[in-house]
Specification:
single chain, alpha+beta, GMP Synthetase, Chain A, domain 3, 5 domains, seven-stranded antiparallel sheet, six-stranded mixed sheet, 30% helix, elongated
Length: 515
């Protein structure tokens, strides 16, 4: 349907007016520059603009043709708002109170408030995972998240930028015993993207079509209306043989570990599903991803401050790019490379020494050269947190990977996870201390000292360490070196080598405890 009279081009209006005047028989001069034509062209220009504005107003009244703010105003009549980025993500560093020596547990969903005196910004965050500040560690990095309401007018209000960090206080809603303070060392990033006009139109049409309930569209739209849920997939027995007749699998992109989200989903499903249909609620799968990047800076010998800036800027760009990948979206290597090379001060990236790896179902990393990763339905590529997810080196640095195995007899099988976590933390803390040593003589790994440290960790958790202990060190320069048993000979580390965990959990051989 067209607006009354239709939209007419400027030249058509000019020709039509001149034809009308010429038909009157008195004015016949229609040459460019004549008085008659000049007046007609001026009038036609204004009339064309009027037609355009009327046509735009007409299009703004229909969901298929409205755009931007006009579309927002139109769908608001149905109580629908455009979806914004789902959450703001970042990292908080919890600092130990020196008066407390034991392990400190930081629970998931610990509430904290970031208050910037520089910009008067105040943002509520919560921890996205549980963490343990083990004995001997002074700090622990924990992922934090701020949920952005769907009706939020400005997602930037939930983000912390560089200006906000200049004078930032982080306050815990409830004081945590053993924690002296919390800081947020780097800006937070937005995960997810704003809903496009096409997506908003499709969602609104789905709400209208599903208003009667009992259909797949009704169920889908009811689930998408739950806050923090950004995507949903439905599977029946024809698509999944593990389902029973009359059973439907609902796969959502949302945090099902949160009781409020789970309760809201169950209510929405109960109200929208057809009678007699059983629903199996599942969360999306995550594909762990690991990246090793070897950067070539423009300066041959960058200063320590410049090195810190290059590494930090690159890490923030890579993590923000990977966090923004939607469910089912693949990783396009050239896009990621463009993000990396946009960091000021970087000349190139050494592809031969860079690596991309995916975690298999059996828990092993499959390495490959950097390339495009195709997306998979109901899966999201997830860059692993910490040094086992993103390893960045500069210039002539050589990555050094250290891996250990330790036999353990556990008094209680339930302690296995705690023992593994404690050993990993103690192991990484020892390597970090070696890397930070300024004395070259102290920059060496003595297996006997490491074995004693790890044995103490096992004993604290009720386990019994065995005498067999293996340490494997790999680097690109010298190949594979192995030290077995509690040998006294130190393994020297060059000043440019930064020891890191291998990315896989420590290999611990278990056996039943003696009766």
């Amino acid at each position: 349907m067209n607006p009354p009279g239709g939209e007419r081009p400027y030249q058509d209006i000019v020709n039509h007016l001149l034809d009308l005047l010429e038909q009157g028989g008195r004015i016949t001069d229609r040459r460019p520059g004549s008085v008659v034509r000049t007046l007609v062209e001026a009038f036609a220009r204004e009339l064309t603009e009027t037609y355009g504005r009327i046509g735009a107003l007409y299009r703004h009244g229909f969901i298929d043709t409205a755009e931007d703010q006009a579309l927002d105003a139109l769908v608001a009549l149905l109580d629908v708002t455009r979806r914004r980025g789902s959450a703001a993500y970042g990292v908080a560093v919890f600092r130990r109170d020196p008066r407390v020596a034991g392990a400190i547990h930081i629970a998931r969903d610990t509430q904290l408030t970031a208050v910037s005196a520089a910009t008067d910004k105040r943002v509520q965050y919560r921890t996205a995972a549980a963490e343990i500040l083990s004995v001997g560690r002074d700090e622990a990095s924990v992922s934090i998240v701020a949920d952005i309401p769907q009706d939020a007018a400005d997602a930037d209000a939930f983000l912390l930028g560089a200006d906000d960090l200049r004078d930032l206080d982080v306050l815990l809603a409830v004081p945590l015993a053993g924690i002296a303070g919390v800081r947020i060392p780097e800006p937070t990033a937005l995960r997810g993207s704003n809903e496009s006009d096409a997506q908003l139109r499709a969602r609104t049409k789905g709400l209208l079509a599903a208003a009667g309930g009992g259909t797949a569209a009704a169920l889908r739209q009811a689930i998408l209306a739950v806050p923090t849920v950004s995507a949903v997939e439905l599977r029946d027995q024809a698509q999944d043989a593990s389902l029973r007749p009359g059973e439907l699998a609902v796969v959502v992109d949302g945090d099902l570990s949160r009781p409020d989200v789970l309760a809201a989903l169950e209510r929405a499903i109960a109200e929208a599903k057809a009678p007699g249909i059983a629903v199996r609620l599942e969360s999306i799968d995550e594909q762990p991803l690991r990246l090793t990047l070897h950067l070539l800076p423009e300066q041959t010998q960058p200063s320590p401050d410049e090195r810190t800036r290059l590494l930090g800027d690159t890490e923030r760009r890579v993590r923000a790019h990977c966090d923004a990948l939607a469910v089912g979206e693949g990783l396009v290597w050239n896009r990621l490379l463009a993000e990396i090379l946009a960091v000021p001060g970087l000349r190139d990236l050494d592809l031969a020494r860079s690596e991309l790896a995916l975690l298999d179902a059996d828990g092993t990393w499959q390495s490959q050269a950097p390339a495009n990763l195709p997306g998979q339905a109901q899966r999201r590529l997830l860059l692993r947190a910490g040094c086992d997810g993103l390893r960045i080196t500069l210039g002539s640095e050589t990555p050094l990977y250290v891996h250990f195995t330790l036999g353990v007899a556990a008094a209680a099988p339930a302690n296995r996870q705690a023992v593994e976590r404690s050993l990993t933390e103690a192991f990484c803390a020892a390597l970090a201390a070696i890397a930070a040593a300024t004395d070259p003589a102290a920059r060496a790994l003595r297996p006997a000292d490491l074995f004693a440290t790890l044995s103490a960790q096992v004993a604290d958790l009720g386990g019994a360490p065995e005498s067999d202990f293996a340490l494997t060190i790999t680097d690109a320069a010298s190949g594979l070196r192995a030290v077995r048993g509690a040998a006294d000979a130190p393994v020297a580390l060059a000043p440019h080598e930064l020891p890191v965990a291998d990315g896989e959990p420590p290999l611990i051989r278990w056996q039943p405890a003696a009766p």
